[in-house]
Amino acid sequence: MTKLFSILMCLVITLGIIVSSMSEVNSSVVGEGGLRDRAVSWIDQAIP
């Protein structure tokens, strides 16, 4: 039972780390002056 609990806690912590890093990446892409804004400006400059 203790091994099962420790494995379950390890999975929960790992999933928490993955979710928090994904939200960090999402905020850097979508945020003000982020990657999406830069890509849109590059596309606007490329189209004459």
Task: Report the uncertain regions.
Answer: none
Q: Could you state the order of secondary-structure elements as H and E?
A: HH
Shape: rod-shaped
Query: Which structural class do you get from the secondary structure elements?
Result: mainly alpha
The termini sit apart by: 66 Å
How many structural units, i.e. domains? Answer: 1
What does the main sheet amount to?
none
Describe this protein's structure.
This protein has 48 residues and is mainly α. The protein has one domain. Helix content is 85%, strand content 0%. The chain is built from two helices and no strands. The longest helix has 29 residues, at 2-30.
Write the layout of secondary structure elements.
Blueprint: H1 2-30, H2 35-46
Features:
48 residues, mainly alpha
In short:
This protein is mainly alpha-helical and 48 residues long. It has helices at residues 2-30, 35-46.
